Amino acid sequence: PLLDALLQIQGYRETAIVLDAPSLATMPISGVFDTSNVEALIALLPRILPVRLTTDADGTTRLQRAQDKK
Q: For residue 40, how many other CB atoms are within 10 A of its CB?
């Protein structure tokens, strides 16, 4: 699940990663990821999952459910 992956990624970065919707935690994600550039990995998430990223002033990365395009 996404939450498990993010907990692993969090160990390689100083700023927090926050899921803004609890339902995001169980999104399926799998694979082998290169931990040498976790920022690129995080930036990839909206391409493979229906999420969008925002970054707070303190560097916290927030994952939100992507809105359907109308």
A: 10
